[in-house]
Amino acid sequence: MSLKTVLILLGLALATIFALVCVLLTRERSPRTCQHLPPEQEDVEDNQSLVFADLTAEEMSQVVRYLQGHLGVPLVEASRAKPSDNCIASVDVQVPAKAEVLRFLDGGGARPPREALAVLYFGNQPEPNITEYVVGPLPAPAYHRDVTVQRDGGKVPYHRRPVTGREYTDINALIQTELKKAPRFLTACCESDGTNLVTLTTAPRGFKSGDRVTWFVLFHNVAGTGYYLSPVGLEVLVDHGDLQISRWQLRQVFYNGRYFASAGDLEQEFVAGVLEVVRLKQPRADAVLGSMKPRSPPGSPGPLQFEPQGPRYRVRNNRVTFQGWSIAFGMNPNTGPRLFDIRYRGERIVYELSLQEALALYGSNCPGGMSTRYLDGSFGIGRFAYELVQGLDCPYTATYVDRHYLAESDTPKTNQKSLCIFEHDSALPLRRHFSDSQSFYYGGLRKNTLVIRTISTLINYDYIWDFMFHGNGAVEVRVHATGYISSSFFHGQGTDYGNRVGPHTLGTMHLHHIHYKVDLDVDGQLNSLETQDMEYEFVKDPWSAQNTIERPYLRRERLEKEDEAAFPLNAPMPRYLSFVSPNPNKWEHPRSYRIQIISFAGKHLPISSSMERSISWGRYQLAVTRRKEEEPTSTSVYNQNDPWTPTVTFADFINNETITNEDLVAWITVGFLHVPHAEDIPNTVTVGNGVGFFLRPYNYFNEDPSVDSPDSVYFSSEQDVGACGANPLACLSSATTCAPRLPPFHFGGFLNL
Q: Where is the Copper amine oxidase N3-terminal domain (predicted)?
């Protein structure tokens, strides 16, 4: 063999070796795809939680078909129905009575029949009214019964019905017709013929029961941005109470601090030259006040949370389980998220945890702003929980759940991916200690939390609703507010009611008050209420009689009556307040769960107000009452349009009944005062705008239950802390040599609007 051949073969061998090394190095740098392990199994049967499940789309359709065939009256599809028509307004699940459910869940009793609650508007009747029917059993309805009096305490007058989308459409048509009577004024004030102006409703609608008279505020409409920041100074008062649309009237017009009888009168004063006009240009999309379009090019991706071996929680039907937790979840189209049968380590802690209402109450020197008291349940907190954006609204790899609803339509609609579930690493220890004396060791546990989240868009505001479940047996409930502020046209002494945030925009002060129902069952249904707080006592120093010492001591008290357990909003309340069981823990203390409220609420509406009783839940930061099946909610969707004669008055729940060893409910109000400022433009941020409460175990266990967590970490100075067997944190480098396989980004949230 020639030397040349040897050199060629040697060169080929070296090239082959080099190529193989490159391939191996490349493989080493390219992480493998993460392999998912099956989540832990739980003891509770999956199908038991279906007793609380929201209706399926098919069940809703079955109810509609049954009602269309069995009521014996003509029904018009709600999206087309006029006030003088009959229509199906909504269909939702009728959750069975608690006693029936517990017999099924705990006592081996029969499964309660599955039923729906249907709300109908009967406008084509001698006496128009709202009627509520329970329809069942599903999936094959065979009966319906009128439960209006049972649920609402009497017949519900027709004027209390929420405003439908069709009604808003007809109101807007009337406003456009009336604006045509002031063409020269509109051109001068707004560079408009009226068609590029958009209206925003206010509520309530009048000053007394039976009124249906609403102020509508007009804004410049710019595609792709929030019109709420571009008021033009024009507001109109529309009377839409008559069943015949042709009889609706525009009652008053407001412009820049002045009131007029009609748009024609406004035009007349403008033509006469006696009207002061603020001439506004039509905002440009690239320079409008409320644009959220990015002003900088995208940067490098931020940190991404993922599960190397797949989710450690398990979602099956309407139930999620995670490290000892079990929760049944759902969504009411009106009041929003609701949870049932919350258990930890197999023991029920909470029977029901549900949002009840969200109040936004405004101040302004314009009629629309000063009269606004939105009760968002009447608009649809659950209905307007739209698709969540993966990677921003929730972690990219969260589990997303579709929700179905039927409202103002005979056909169910689906808000895809409108609820998300994920495990959250808060980057904070749940507990830890570093020992630097006697013996040297470290012990700790990451604060990983299961989160159930949904987000409601209620006109301008977005509410982020979180329910979190911690490794120590605590439940955390939290709400953040973001979205756009509502605004008024800046004129006169506007800064008495907020801050100027644009050339002609007043960010109007308002409060957000949120109400929750918490039906705690602590070690059984029969609980009492105990408070604990500190006092100081002045005693002679036992070892130095000439001196005194200020010694703190614990003052315990059992509250016996409902009146004692109604704590006024913003007034001092005991620092420790607990639902206690008759049964003790190992250390002879009652097994208890403590309620801890985090809130910065504004002032409640004065009790002298004619509409205060409709939101009387807001009098109290906490009220504890005996649970009653006939008191399922603290408010009603009908309270918005008739707050002067409310369908449900929460204050009447508190009637000084005994609360010792009874089935009790905690009603909790949280909130904050918001005075908009320059930094609320374009959007209100969530930082500092979050409130909520905790349910924390207090002597419920014999020790912190998180000690049993498989995530616990402990190592001492005598161990090799880099050894995977001694320290789970040392395992991460090998356990996470994989990359998550992220699904392609998809968003279909605009398809169902």
A: 161-258
